[in-house]
Design brief:
Layout (H helix, E strand, L loop, with lengths): L10 H27 L3 H25 L5 H21 L3 H22 L1 H8 L7
Helix pairs in contact: 1-2, 1-4, 1-5, 2-3, 3-4
Length: about 130
């Protein structure tokens, strides 16, 4: 049985994968909330798109955990888009929302920085120890 400890070696890979996975799960949660709001067909459509997009982001995290070289693009690109979105939302939000969005922004920046570090690139270029 494989253990998840290989994901956190090097730590930068673990940060990138965890950040992407949290983003994906969060987006799926927003999609489910949109569908549950049941404001007509529009909220169902938006919810379905958000769930699909969240699954794509989570797929990037899964690829990263499997050390697939294609994972870096699927981790970095959505995180950069999310940084722009959160920064935009922070400009029009009230103080409590800005604090919450600031925490999300820190997670996203950490995800991007960790994903582009040389140690992460090297980890994604080779299989984890014990894999053949």
């Amino acid at each position: 049985m494989r253990h998840l400890s290989h994901i956190f070696e090097p730590p930068s890979l673990g940060v990138a994968v965890t950040g992407a996975a949290l983003s994906g799960v969060g987006i799926v949660g927003v999609g489910v909330g949109s569908i549950a709001a049941a404001h007509a067909a529009f909220s169902i459509g938006i919810g379905a798109v958000l769930i699909g997009y969240g699954l794509l982001v989570a797929f990037g995290a899964w690829l990263g955990a499997r050390r697939n070289p294609f994972a870096r693009g699927l981790i970095v690109a959505p995180a950069l888009l999310h940084i722009a979105t959160v920064a935009s939302l922070m400009q029009s939000a009230e103080t409590p929302q800005v604090v919450g969005l600031g925490a999300v922004l820190l997670l996203l920046v950490a995800t991007v920085v960790a994903a582009v570090l040389p140690s992460t690139r090297l980890a994604l270029a080779r299989p984890a120890a014990g894999e053949d």
